[in-house]
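Session log. Operator J.P. requested a structure for one protein chain; no other inputs attached. Running the standard single-chain path with token output.
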Amino acid sequence: MSVNIKNYFQYLKDRIGSASETDQRLRFLGFAGLFVFHYKIFRPNVDQKYFKLIYQMHKIVPVVHIFGNVYWSPSDFFESQVPKLVQLLGKSDVLQSRQASLKKIQDNLPQYAQRKMGGKRFDYV
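Structure written below.
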């Protein structure tokens, strides 16, 4: 695996979910495309342990919002583009991680909205 790809992944992994995160989730989308491109060119040289680390990012980034109602899911993307690598990993808990992420967003929504409204009371039905 290319050192540049590994370094870029490490950069994204360190930033995603941190307080200083800006557009790293969109960059992860580009990284996933770059990884699949690299895999299709250099198929025998792909490290399966490294792919497992990349694939496990679906627990942190279950869905990336692109625009409007367009979204991208890393697990669906990898399952469609590199199914052999995904099959080598075995069964994964993709649905559970998506549900946990949505539950976390739902629980944090009132606090997020209150911060954005400048501390004013915010109730939703």
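Operator note: Residues 94-116 form the longest helix (23 residues).
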